[in-house]
Amino acid sequence: MRALRAGLVGFGVMGRNHARVLGSTDGVELAGVVDPRGGAAPSGVPLLDSLDGLLALGVDYAVVACPTALHEEVGLRLAEAGVAALIEKPLADSVEAAGRLVAAFESRGLVAGVGHIERYNPALQSMRARLEAGELGEVFQVVTRRQGPFPHRISDVGVVKDLATHDIDLTAWVTGQDYVSVSAHTVARSGRPHEDMVAAVGRLADGSMVNHLVNWLSPLKERTAVVTGERGCFVADTLTADLTFHANGEVSNEWEALRNFRGVSQGDMVRYAIPKPEPLRVEHERFRDAVRAGGGTGGIVTLRQALRTVEVSAAVLESAETGETVALKAPSEVLGVG
């Protein structure tokens, strides 16, 4: 079986990570890199100044890692050329642009996915499987914290579209539930035109509560997701890919005044031993397999799923601007297994 020829559009920080993985993925050949700023591509790989040059080389698919504001333009060109695409998250900088990308690829029957990489994090993969198996019982709440210093490479979007989209997507994915409403507050403290901190509260279709705290204003880098349910809580640290379970204690209470109190107590704590493959490599292998199969969406994040994340992030910004809770319309596709 011949190797798939892959192109890369954008050679910034994330683009370099994609190039590293593409260059070492079985069955894939990195055929060319597009970056109008110039510089140096990986050894032996042409560095091109335009998408036309990449298309002229002939590629089976392209990874789009340019700034979010350019995703629509680049994605539509790839769709017109009949080239499959793996587009970095978020899918686009507006709901309308994301919708046009969905239509362009679907109408041509092209394989297309979005790089919501947290779906491939081992801790979240394990958490999702355990939630599906009912190990936590009824889910009450999902809380995420994603904070750290400002990445100066980001200039075209704020923290909601760049970072909070991770938490929006992973929350819907691990729970299998869609957002039905959101309420949010944002601030801008770093002198940029976009928000750099958001606190959001949401409700999922099953009635469970969601809380997201995301910012670029903290010297502490933190990436955690906590799911609380009737049997305890799962804590995923996605920086270390560790998953811990804190069980509700089952200790009888002989104190008459507390005997009828239906609260919880601390029980056993289990830190799971799980395999930890690199999420970006798994993402690329899944997308490679989808392109080889010529269709199907198993294992990749579809454009429709990513469109929903853009819709929820737009609702977060709308709520922050208006000060009102925003109700979300039903999605056009049930969330996939991934």
Order of helices and strands: EHEEHEHEHEHEHEEEEEEEHHE
Number of helices: 8
Structural class comes to alpha/beta
Largest sheet: 9 strands, mixed
In percent terms, what proportion of residues is strand? Answer: 25-35%
Percent of residues in helices comes to 25-40%
Query: Based on CA inertia axes, which overall geometry fits?
Result: globular
Strand order of the largest sheet: 14-13-12-11-7-10-9-8-15
Per DSSP E runs of 2 or more residues, the count of β-strands stands at 15
Detailed description of the structure:
By secondary structure, the protein is of the alpha/beta class. 30% of the residues lie in helices and 29% in strands. The chain is built from 8 helices and 15 strands. It has helices at 13-22, 51-57, 71-80, 95-107, 122-132, 159-175, 279-293, 303-322; strands spanning 4-9, 28-34, 47-48, 61-64, 84-88, 112-115, 139-149, 179-187, 197-204, 209-215, 217-229, 232-237, 242-248, 266-271, 326-327. Strands 14-13-12-11-7-10-9-8-15 form a 9-stranded mixed β-sheet. A 6-stranded parallel β-sheet has the order 3-2-1-4-5-6, sandwiched between helices. α5 packs parallel to α6. It starts with a strand and ends in an 11-residue tail after the last strand.
